[in-house]
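Hello,

Our lab assistant flagged a job as stuck in the queue for most of the afternoon. It eventually completed. Since we weren't sure the result was trustworthy after the delay, we are filing this so someone can double-check. Below is the sequence as submitted and the structure that was eventually returned. Let us know if re-running is recommended.
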Amino acid sequence: MDINRFIAEHAPETEGSCRIDEQLFKQFDVKRGLRNADHTGVLVGLTRVGSVVGYEKIEGKLVAVDGKLIYRGIDINDLVHGTQTEKRPGFDETVFLLLFGRLPLKDELTVFMEGMAEQRALPENFNRDMILTMKGKDIMNMMARSILALYTLDPHADDTSIHNIIRQSISLIAKFPTIAVYSYHAMRHLIYYDTLTVRYPDKKLETAENFLYMLKGQDYTPLEAELLDLCLVLHAEHGGGNNSTFTTRVVSSSGTDTYSAIVAAIGSLKGPLHGGANLQVIEMMDNIKANIRNWSNDDEVAEYLRKILGREAYDKSGKIYGFGHAVYTVSDPRALLLKEKARLLSREKGREKEMDLFEAIERIGPEIYYEFKGTREKLISPNVDFYSGFVYECLKIPKELYTPLFAISRIAGWSAHRLEELISGKRIIRPAYKALEPDRSYIPLSERQ
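-- returned structure --
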């Protein structure tokens, strides 16, 4: 029998043997998804890297509050507005803050940025041998493969001393944009036969601007570079509980090498429930724009949102993508900061009507959601993904690079959490699972019917 036919016949047995009655999770008080009954995360560790706040305890009760995002004790609003006031990019400074635990002095930042720029180039022939030669359809997988290849070129790959891990982290943070852009060009060339263009990293440019240069040459504006830098800063860290960062900590707790831990995080972020939200927003918005005749008519917008929630329109999932978050309730501070600059970008690109539509949905969406649910028990607001996809579209960044851009930013947080886990964790992460399968006797093969 053909193995594929064999698998098709027996797959239902696997499905049956893996299915667990929903009531059993309640019976044994299982924290599914490591979530408490009120949807807050189960406390599994301590961190000084980042903090995500959506609730506060007031008189013993959890109360929804305006969202806060803290990097090493510094509010994200202060960090962003500080660099914007001084009219300079903030991502490299954010990386320094996350890795070393404090803001850099002026001379330190200069040295650090120069060092990052020096690390962007890939090893000789790496692009040809590892990226161009080996075809790939998914950039996240191509990035993971490339990171594992870099392990083989590092003479100190398994050295878990703090000095060496910092060295490896800086090298990977610097190389992620190069790997992502080269992987994109390779994919387009090998699969769609596009003209292959390879631009070497420019040491004179900061991280976001260098990414845009490698991707599309000089075809970008100062505002575009500023917006991309802002996106990188906003996505760099989000506490220890998000799936990819927790993956980094779990894998790092085993004592494995940096490259393996980061590849595990990439695999987590690749999952559509984690890293693909902004693309889902863009696809939903394309559908909304195609089905609403008058974008400025709130009643028409509201009616179509009701159809989406009622599983009558778009993908029939019943979800308004870009709304709601596991922690944030009243507001997502990242969405508010990104919206400030997205309006300016929409003017530069002549897409103000689209921005108006986004803002209309931001205003109307929550009320339609509460109306549909018949309760305000669970508060929702736009999250960062609601506007980030629109920003990437305005920047003419290909959709295939949306999730890789998330990785380019979040590796800063992954690296900081990996260091903290190795320095302070000191114990392999191993939660418990309750076994449900009853005891059975082994039956010799000759007696099985």
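-- support follow-up --
The delay was a queue issue, not a problem with the job. The result is valid. The first helix runs from residue 3 to 18. The CA atoms of residues 189 and 195 lie 6 Å apart.
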